[in-house]
Amino acid sequence: MFSTFYFIWVILFISQIYFIKKYFKKCDTCQIIHRSDNFLIINKQADIKINSNNKNEETVQTFLRNTCPELTNQKLFHEFYFPHRLDYSTSGILCIPKTREVCKIVSAAFSARTTKKYYVALVRGVLSSNFIDVNISVGDDLREPQIQKMCTSSEKSFCKNPRSARTIVMALEQGIYNNYPATKILCRPITGRRHQIRVHCTFLGHTIIGDYTYSNRKDNKTPRMYLHAIKLVLPNKLEDINVFTDDPFTHIKGWKKLKLFQSLSSGYIEIDRYSNSLNCL
Q: Structure pTM?
């Protein structure tokens, strides 16, 4: 009799721990970092989809539905406006317009390239230069269409429908990750192609640490892919958006900084100055 009650108690205790952990995990999927009459700006965590056809799957969409139910639009298939996206593996800033009119303004800004997006990443190896202008088209990789992998137009035999793509890369820090040379970089994508930064880094020979797809499925020992959308500048007639997050890769396990080239604050200025010198804005 006692053993039966004890067994039931253990099962209930374990169940409570499971649901508590699940609850806090859901709370950690995103954080709202800016809220106004026109916008929600969120900081998305890594390994979370923006939305899904499965409405019970944990996504940015479900986070918004649970956190801001008053903004849910049942006329939209995914309930909210998503004028731009982040990869499943990428963390960082995502702009959510509250209305259709605001969404049009945001979409127009992205199309006109008046927005400025900045990403921080940890990549394998040591860059050959502190500034690199990666200006090569990106298209669908015919070798792996099932995972929607991309490649550069340098791989002519496999690159379908290549489109112009340009990313400015700047070295912030040089160091080691798990005893191998690595570099922390700041990226400023001028265009917005699928997987653009990941493909361009791989093209340079400096794959992003933790990028399973573009390391030929070899880089699977890290807790996540180290790519983060750290800053968004979105000028518009309603309200100018200039938001940023902290650098999530400052104190990660395995990373040791050996040399500082630029701080983040000065890095934003310098990468803009370099971009202006190339007349690519």
A: 0.88
